[in-house]
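Contributing new records

If you add data, match the layout below exactly. Sequence lines come first and carry their own label; structure lines follow with theirs. Keep one chain per record. Anything else will be rejected by the validation script.
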Amino acid sequence: MIVAELVRLGPDTPGGRAVIQRLNRIHSTYAIRQEDYAYVLSGFVAEPIRWIENYGWRVLHPFEEEALFLFWDHVGSLMQLEQHPAVCTGPDWPAFTVATTEPAPVILITRAAKGFEITQLFQSILQIDHL
């Protein structure tokens, strides 16, 4: 729900900034490596693109892919992450999510929770009952 609110409100709005503060507060209780933050954040770019390529009615235009990248890279900057997609990967950001294997256990939990939230977001946007 937090991610859905961030997307709905936009990261530069007062509500979006509050969401980012909440995310930072939640994550501050864990010892998370910068590489793991970048890995998860890059997943917000790569996984929707992969999902749409596999199940969507059309592939995304490169401008749409770039917009996803820029949005989540901006979120990483606002979260004050030392390593966010642009810093870690530049134009080769999809390779980062594939090349990074065996993320820390906390990332597996985070990824599962975020995957569930993303699925719910897609369901609400596409107005479907189940995936």
